[in-house]
What we know:
The protein folds into 2 domains: 3-140, Cytidine Deaminase, domain 2 (3-Layer(aba) Sandwich), CATH 3.40.140; 146-366, Dihydrofolate Reductase, subunit A (3-Layer(aba) Sandwich). It is built from 13 helices and 16 strands. The chain is of the alpha/beta class. It has helices spanning 3-20, 57-65, 90-97, 116-123, 134-140, 142-150, 179-190, 199-205, 237-240, 257-265, 283-292, 304-312, 338-347, and strands at residues 32-37, 42-48, 73-76, 101-104, 127-129, 154-161, 166-168, 194-198, 222-226, 247-251, 269-272, 297-300, 318-324, 333-334, 348-356, 359-366. The strands form 3 sheets. A 9-stranded mixed sheet has the order 11-10-9-8-12-6-13-16-15. A 5-stranded mixed sheet has the order 2-1-3-4-5, with helices on both faces. Strands 7-14 form a two-stranded antiparallel sheet.
Amino acid sequence: MTTSASDERFMRLALALGYRNLGRTWPNPSVGAVLVDPSDGRIVSAGVTQPGGRPHAERVALAEAGEAARGKTLYVSLEPCSHHGRTPPCAEAVIASGVGRLVTSLEDADRRVAGRGHAMICEAGIALATGILSAEAARDHRGHFTRAREGRPAVILKLARTADGFAAAGTARLMITGEGANRRTHMLRAHADAVLVGVSTILADDPGLDVRLPGMEARSPVRVVADSHLRTPLGSRLVETAEDRKTFILCGPEADRAAEERLEARGVTVLRVPALDGGKLELRSALRRLGEVGLTRILCEGGPTLADALARDDLLDEAVVITNERPLGARGLEAVGPHLSAALAAKFRTLSDEPVGPDRIRHLERAI
C-alpha cells in the first residue's frame, strides 16, 4: 500500500469519526483524529471532538495512547488549534506527545489559527502533510468555515414536494414523503446544530422538531423560529418544551415586549434582529446573530416562503430536495419559488440523486 493510499485511508476514518458528531460540538467544529503506527498500519487510538466542543479530537486520541504516541502518525481532519482558549492549544499537545508525523486535511479558517498550528508543528521538527481529502473535509467542516468567514452558520435547506411540484394543498397539512425519506430527515436533524422554521409552520403544524429515531432522541437539535412579531403561541409544543430543549425565537425590533417576557418566562430565548420595511426579518443579520451564540449548522425546514427568501439573499449552502412519486393533482403551494429555482440552477451542483422508496432524494451543495 502506498503512502498516499495509506494517508487517504486513515484520513477517511478521521472524517467519518468527525461526521458522526456533527451537530453536537458547536460552537467548535467536529473533528476526527486517528493515531497510527506507520510501521505496520496498526491503529493505536482514535478520537473525536466531544459534545459541547471540548476536549478536542487530538487530545482524546493522544490521551488514550499516552506514551504509545511517540513516533506515530496522527491524522486530523482539521489543522490543530494554536490559540489559548478554555484549554491550551492542541498543537502544543501534539508536539508534547512525541508523534513523528502529522497529516491534516485543511488549514483552519479561524483567524486565531489559520496556519499557525501547522507552523508550530513544523518548527518543532514534526513532519507535516496537509491537503489530504480536502474537498471532503471542507464539506464536513462547512459550518465552521462559514461561521469563521461570514459570521453566520451554514444553512442546509430540506424541502419536500409532490411529483407536480407542490409543498402544500391550500392551508391543509400535506404528508408528502414516505418512511425512508422521513428517516433521512431525522438524520439531517441529528447532524444539525439547530433546525429553523418560520412562525407560519408553528401556527399551521405545531411541530416538535425533534429526532424520532430509536436511540437517537438525545440528538434532537436546538429549535429556531423566525417570528418577526412574536406570534408563537405559549401553548405550542416548542414553548412547552423550551425548558428541556434550547429554543430561540428571532423577532424584529418592534415586537411586543410583553410577549417577549411571557416567552422568556417559559424558557425561550428571544433574539431581536433588524427588520426590513414591512416588518420581515433581515435574514443575513438574523443568521449572524445565531452565529454569535455559537451555531454553525442550521437545517431549514421552514417551507417554501422562507426557503425562497434565503435563496434571494444568497444564504443557502446545501439543499436536500425530496420529490415524491405521487402528484397532488390540484393547485397548491409551489415548493420551489423563483429565487430558489434560479439559485439551484446557477450556483449549486448535485452531490447525490437516489430513489428511497416512493421518493427521490437529491442532495445539492453550493459550488465551492
